[in-house]
Structures are given as structure tokens and as C-alpha cells.
Amino acid sequence: MAMQRRDFLKAVGSSTVLALAQPLAQPVLAEEPKPGFDTNPIGGYVKRPPKAYLFTDHRLVCPSDLAWANPEGKGLPLTNPPYPVVDAHAVGNNVPYGIRLVAQPARTEPVEGDPPPAPGNVVEADGSYYAFNFGIDYPPGQDLGAYSTADPNAVWISASRSPDLQTWADVGKSQLDIPGQTRMDGFTAFFDPHGSPDERFKAVYMAHPPKTRIPALWETYQKLHPRHRDVRINPERLTCIYGVTSPDGVKWTPIQEPLFTHYSDTDTTVCYDEWLGKYVMYTRLYLTDRRMVAICEAEDFRHWGPVRPLIWPGLEESLATDVYTNACTRYPGMPEVHLMFPMFYHRFDQTSDIRLFTSIDGLHWNQVPGGPVLARSTFRDRSIEFLVASKPLLPLPKDRVGFRYSASLYPHKYPRWKQGLKPGKSGWAWWEKGRLVALTAAEEGEFVTFSIPVMGRELRLNARTPRAGMLKVGLPGRQLEDCDPIVGDSLAHPVRWKGKADVGLEPGKDVSIKFHLRKAELFGFEWAT
Predict the structure, then answer these.
(1) What is the share, in percent, of the chain residues with pLDDT greater than 70?
(2) Helix, strand, coil: what percent of the chain each, to 5?
């Protein structure tokens, strides 16, 4: 149960130190959540209490605050403190110290058993993986992607399926009847758990509409407030986002009317967010002649709200920097962990690097400190110039997660001859399980979590320390000083107090966990039975 501000102040007045801190207030929501859904972002917005947690952002770390006491050590309240006036001194009250979040660089060396490249855009659904490929048959010499002005001979979606990402079987090819559309690009597919049985799979792509539709679309677009428009769009260059649906990922049906007018000829991500109860699209904007990640939402797949800027180059960046692609995804098996691997494009030399952004709700994002997670310096091959991250983040063999990357040996806008250029490279950028972000203590550090439900009889830590480092854990009834020191490198260190692993707490009970770190990296923890 969250502690309200008034109750917190009363508690400070009666005790100088709270044994374990509680959240001070419930978050204020813009609208009523659906029944049965979590309303508190601690641990992430989830439909049911999780057993495992990752330190990808600040959602678990209670900020707490100082308490104040008189010279004799008796607590003083904020309002109406007793007279006489004294020199009050601060008392530490589980305020976190000595810790910071650090993004971990990806590794790229191949590992035996790595899955091969998937034959298209990967989507997980019903315990299987699907790969979708958007194919366009242009007249000879006219295959120029978004720059193609010729009417295509045919447009189709092919599908493959895999139980494990290792072997793929073709399951069908569906031709789309979309006369008059040209300049297609930006295809992405997704599985929709909210969709009707005949629309369980959905996809979007960008295209120029038939010429007869442009006047009406342009008239509608001009009614948007200027802050929601793209200055590149005009009657001669009007593009739309179109949708297609499928019951099984094999047979696809186009939605003839565009979903909305927008220009996005690159990475687009769409999902149905079960907690928000909305469709969310991460796309691109081009304000002040700089690329940036944008977002729009929809109550239903056919009616979308305005496109809004989301992530753009910060003022601390070079003035020749764009945020090019989003590569938005979730951590495998943990939909509450929103991740993004945007590509930062540097116009000065037309190179790029991949950063890590995280979000509690999918709507508000922060870059994780620590620098790029994938860059030219990641590779031994110094000839690499330009990098792109794909999505989604996928489980890999040997307790790893990763995404596919593409690497060009040339700057991004280098002339693209059809023949004569060296081929680029691709592979897996990967991390050990759960280790995308470390909560790091360079020396000594300490914090308590917000109150979370007990979901097991034991507690295990995903953590790494040098020989001189250490972690300790405290729980109600299990004191920090009684914890056996945790040392070494393991994805699942068992926590023990005087040799006993049982936490001694009833499942479902809400508790705060206290962590003490010395030269340690803590990536996450999980309840175990």
C-alpha cells in the first residue's frame, strides 16, 4: 500500500528512521485504467505481479528523503515542531547513494548456435515466430524503394514460421490488390492480441496514394494544426500510412483507405499496448531538417491521432546529429520493460551509433547513461562506417538476448552503385540475459526498493562483482548484516542469511528490499520457489 504524503510526514515526526521506505504517493493517471490493471508504475505497468525485475530505469529505486532530528536525536516533524528552536540535523532515511545506471555495450562476436538471419520482419505470436517480407515487383530499372515513381507490377507479403528462430518454413505468399499506390517503404508487421479473429496480424507501410485521392487528402491534412504537420508534405509529395490485416499471417487484406497522412520511409514500430488499451506507433518526423522519433496513438487501428515528436537530438549533441530509426521493442517475456535502440546519425561524417532508451509506460523515454551500446568502436573491423539496429530483441541460446544489426563499409549517403561496392556485414548484437543496464556502485552504495509483492520463497540476484566487491540484501526479518556476502559473476546468485535461503515471508506480502553494494553491478533480481 502506498504511503501518502501526510502520513509520511507524521511518521517522520514519530521516528527518526523508517526501517524500509515506501512510495510517497500513487501516480496521477490521465484516465481511469481498465479493471484488473496495475495503476502503479513501480515495477512497470503490469497485469499481474512479476517474479523477475530488471534495473533498466528508476522504477524500482525508492528516492526516499531525509528526516530531521533535534540534538538529542528525537525526530522533528515538518509542521508545528515543538519549541524551543534548535539546530536540527539531518538523519539518513534510505536515500539512495553511491549508485548509478549504466548502459552496457553489446557484444558482437558470433557464438556457436546463433540463429541465422530471419527471412523478414520477425513477430512472435502463439508460441511461434513469424517472419514477414514485403515484396514489390517493379518494372526493370525502377526498383528505387521510396524513390520509385513507377507503378509496381505486383505487391505481396510472404510469410515464414519458426518454432525456435533456427529453422524457417515458408507458409504462404499473399498478393495485395492496391492499385494506384507507389513509392512504398517502411513496412512493419505485428501480432495484435486485441484484434478480432480475422485481424490477429496487422501491418503498416508508407505509400503515395492514387492521384485521384490526393486533393481530398491534402484538404484534410491542412486542417491539422501546424505543429502536427510535416513540412515535407505537399500536394506534389503527399504520402500516407496504409494498413493490411490477416487472420493467420498468411492471407493479407489491404485496407484501401489510408490510416492517416504521414511521411515515414524507414523504421516504423506498431503494437497494441494492453495496459494503455491503445495502439501505439513509433515513427519518424523531420522537423528543423533533422530526423527524430515520433509517436502517435489510436483507439482503433483505422483512426489515428496526431503525430508528435518523441525523441530528438538533445542540445548537448552535435548540431549535425539526427535520431534516425527507433528499433522499439520489449524485453523478451517482460512486456513491462519498454526498450528502444535508436540510431543516432552524424552528418559530419555520415556515420552512426546505437543508443539505449528505456520507458516505464512506452510514452515517456530517457536515454540510459553510459554511451552507445553499439558503435564503430565495438568492432575489431575499423572499416565499418554506418550501423542500423533491427527489432525485436530476441532470446538467444546460452542465456543471451540480442537483435540483428546491419553494418555498411561506407558512409550513409555514399553513392550506391549497383555493382562494385564491397558488401556490408550483419550479425547479432547481444548481451547476457538481463544485462542491458547495470545499477553500478563504483565504491560503496545503498538503496531500498519500493514495496513489491513477495512471489517466492527465495531471492536470486543477477549481479557481478570483482573479488574485492560484494553485495548484501536486507528484508523484514532478514537483516542486512546477517546476509552472506555475494561475490562473483552469476545470472542467479542465491541470497542467504547465515546460510539460510528462505526469505521467511508469506507469498503476496508487500516488502521493500534493501541492497548494499561495494564495487558491484546489479542487473536484476527474481523470486524463486
Answers:
(1) 93
(2) 5, 40, 50
